[in-house]
Amino acid sequence: MNLQSASREQLQAFEAELSQQYDTYQAAGLNLDLTRGKPSTEQVALSNNLDGILSGNYFAADGTDLRNYGGLDGLPEMKQLFADTFGLDASSIAIAGNSSLTLMYQSVMFAQHFGLGAEAWNKEEGEVKFLCPVPGYDRHFSICEELGIAMIPVAMNENGPLMDEVEALIKADPMIKGIWCVPRFSNPTGCVYSAEVVGRIAALGKIAGKGFKVFWDNAYAVHVLNDNAEELTSITDCAKDAGTEDNILLFGSTSKVTFAGAGVAFLAAASPALSAFKKHLAISSIGPDKVNQQRHIDLLKDAEGFKRHMAKHAVILKPRFDIVEKHLSEGLAAAGIATWLKPEGGYFVSFDSMPGLAKEVVAMAAKAGVKLTPAGATYPYGDDPLDTNIRIAPTYPAIEDIDQAMGIFVTCVKLASVRKLLSA
User: Fold this and answer.
1) Across 174-190, average pLDDT
2) Long-range CB contacts (within 8 A, 24+) of 229-235
3) PANTHER family given for it (predicted)?
4) Fewer Cβ within 10 Å of end Cβ, the chain: N or C?
């Protein structure tokens, strides 16, 4: 039934039915968690062979002693593995630690205070600003808040950020120094940036103020649910065509590929920015964990091995996303009160309620034993102006728990929506 066209009597009857269902859920004392996009226990177990894989051989192919200092920017074989998997030039890659989020934080901080191939942002007159496509990744926004960078939300659709808006803002304000992008299976919408959008983002350096950087967080590039999932146009190729290679910083990691807390992360950039990054990094580091890099080289071996490993992840993940889609489609598709995207990869489902209801739905779900990411988290400063977006993260819980949690979620959405319609 389309609730938007239902009579008041129908809505009242539906409200009574849904209230009874909701009371039953509350009384059950459940504790289900769909808050963060963590890999499941089954997924991390796919990489258990990392333990002991070196068999006591702590020397790299070139004879480097993996146990000792040095190798600030990583092993050549690890660079090549990332280069072949992500379509990059190995000479543009630096490897440091296990977290691409750390590399992003460092890159923003270095650019802010020291410069990355250009003058430091804080030496210019005015407030440094970033463009933030929304809904987006809350940890990107936290970096900006931590470092005192103002955030400007820009809308997205199924093709990525609305580029007319992005270009107009950048042309009008040279103190916009960056834009956050999660280009393939975006967090949380799951969209893949179109070829046109990638090309226009690559060209932003031609119209932006000095020192502008695209922060290309390709976190989910290899996290495919379907073999025929849409590919992503290479921003490095587009940047070469536009002559803007210096404006692009690319990030990725194995955090959701192998062990989430013991992976390998990389930054890829053109020479001026990469050289500056390594110079600043050398002040705080005497080298990354080369033992762990070699473990990953031996486990994944090459780009084809990487792909085969991710196919095993898809077998585990796809049923979880299918359950989410089943509940949303069967429970809400005909109701006319919500929209969502069906992703072909990544870790999230982005859900939009009727305006003004996201916080209420999240609160209702919590009272019924289902924890969700706080409403507003996908917007800068936690402020979703329409209070509509909810990020669903179905990767970590057991399938049975996801099934139960989504049944409760759909009930909460319906009940909140019916009450809103009755109050109008």
Assistant:
1) 97
2) 229/185, 229/192, 229/344, 229/345, 230/192, 230/344, 231/192, 232/183, 232/184, 232/192, 232/193, 232/198, 233/193, 233/194, 233/195, 233/198, 233/199, 234/87, 234/198, 235/183, 235/198, 235/201, 235/202
3) AMINOTRANSFERASE, PUTATIVE-RELATED (PTHR43799), ASPARTATE AMINOTRANSFERASE (PTHR43799:SF1)
4) C
CA 177 to chain centre: 21
Residue 185, Cα to own-chain centre: how many angstroms? 8
Determine the Cα–Cα distance for residues 15 and 361; give it in Å rounded to an integer.
15
The domain locations on the chain are 3-43+307-423, 60-301
Output the pLDDT for position 1.
83
User: Cα–Cα distance between 376 and 382 in angstroms, integer?
Assistant: 4
CA 226, CA 245: separation in Å to the nearest integer?
31
This prediction's pTM: 0.96
Calpha distance 112→132 (Å, rounded): 17
Listed residue (399, 421, 422) closest to 34, CA to CA: 399
Residue type, 254: T
CA distances to 121, 140, 277, 285, 383 from 116, rounded to whole Å, are 9, 19, 6, 18, 31
Model pLDDT for residues 358-382, shown as the tens digit of each residue: 999 999 999 999 999 999 999 999 9
The residue-averaged pLDDT of 202-206 equals 98
- Mind giving me the DSSP string for 281-336? HHHH-S---HHHHHHHHHHH-SHHHHHHHHHHHHHHHHHHHHHHHHHHHHHHTTTT
What CATH number belongs to 60-301? Answer: 3.40.640.10
Nearest CA to 133 among 220, 191, 86?
191
Run of H or E residues at 372? strand 370-372
Q: 387 near 373, Cβ under 8 Å?
A: no
Nearest to 413 by CA among 303, 329, 312, 316: 329
